[in-house]
Design goal:
The structure is a single chain. The chain is of the alpha+beta class. The chain has a single domain, classed as Sandwich (Immunoglobulin-like). Helix content is 20%, strand content 49%. The strands form three sheets. Strands 1-10-9-6-7 form a five-stranded antiparallel sheet. It has a three-stranded antiparallel sheet with strand order 4-5-8. A hairpin with a 2-residue loop joins strand 4 and strand 5. Helix 1 packs across helix 3. The longest helix is centred in the N-terminal third of the chain and has 19 residues. The chain is elongated.
Length: 166
Amino acid sequence: MSRSDQTRSRTAERIARGALVGLAVLSLVVSPVAAVAPVAGLQTGDAGSAAQVSDETDRFDVDAEVLGRCGLDCRLVAANVTNVGNETAENVTMTVRVKTSGRTLWRQSGKLGDLRPNETVGRTSTIDVGPRGLYRIQRNDGRIAINATIEWDDGVETQTTRRRVL
């Protein structure tokens, strides 16, 4: 690595570290999932908030809770998915993406199995966007989108929340 490449690398690391100062707010990155609103009816409130809009056609309710920190750019999160429909949803899977400026910073998929009406399934995940992800969030004026896509044998549903977290 040339000297100028090393200097650029150190500069990028310093910028990323500086962005980590604002990471205390990153706990809000995950908490918006608790207020997941349907894409069609999304309303964004003030910085750090998202308004929830009810959509009678939603088949699932998704909520999440930040359990703790696992690093400066990382959070441990518990998520619950409830089948609010009237029929069993078979072969349910969920994919969650944290995005900024159209770039996916974090993605995870998992099988939830079959969910009977009003049945809830919980999962715990570690969301780590890394220093570069944090830098990208900062460059996007602190704005992120969290997409939860739930697929089952009879359909697909995506719920999105947009938040300003920094």
